[in-house]
Write a structure and sequence with these properties.
Elements lengths: L1 H9 L3 E4 L10 E3 L3 H14 L9 E5 L2 E6 L23 H10 L8 H11 L6 E4 L3 E6 L10 E3 L6 H17 L5 H10 L6 H8 L4 H14 L3 E3 L12 E3 L1
Antiparallel strand pairs: 1-2, 1-7, 3-4, 4-6, 5-6, 8-9
Amino acid sequence: MIAAAVDFVLSKINLYTGDRSKGPHVDVEYELPIGAVTEAIVNAVAHRDYTSNASVQVMLFPDRLEVLNPGRLPFGLTVEELYSAHRSIPANPLLAESLYLYGTIERMGTGTGDIVEACTEKGLKKPEFKQDSGFEVVLFRKTSQEATPQAKTSAAEVSAEVSAEVGTEVSAEVDVGVKPPQERLRDLEAFCSSPRSRKEMQAFCGIKSDEYFRKNIIQPMLADGLVKMTIPEKPNSSKQKYVRV
């Protein structure tokens, strides 16, 4: 999920190509540091508030990349502290531990500092961290006037229209990959005390992808005997509903 979101962003930003003056290989470099983009998305997934139905959102604009998640900084940690090494206070300790063991994150609270360092070393504007209704990381791109003439894009030039498309598609990718916690599934089971359609159940969970919801929510609930179909003889009926067993 994280890799797919990062790859999608990289496919839409400028890719600078060098020459073979230093060796047989041509140097390539993205306009935004890959490490900073990855760290921003990893942090959003790892530290979001999983009791919220809101999605992690990754939105690309002509002048910036925004990564938002429904979460808040831990008590005692300020936005100012994020610009350097700080205490590590994971919002989701079990998830953070899994990501650490997989090698995706570190324990020491260096991620946001690394984002700042990578962007400033590249000559980009200092990233911004914001805490409002959720938590937001903003990575600034160079404007067309600042970009070098040799810059070549890895996809079509990103316009305002394409930027809106990027925000929608990446948000969907990130949202689809996050399975609701067991508490949410219990809530869904209770919600089906009365017969509910698939769309009603999906809206209740706040999940956008129909295919993901069928394969990862409805089918397991049916297999575990948590719910049953109201029209079992016609599983694909448009009037099909699901009710708690």
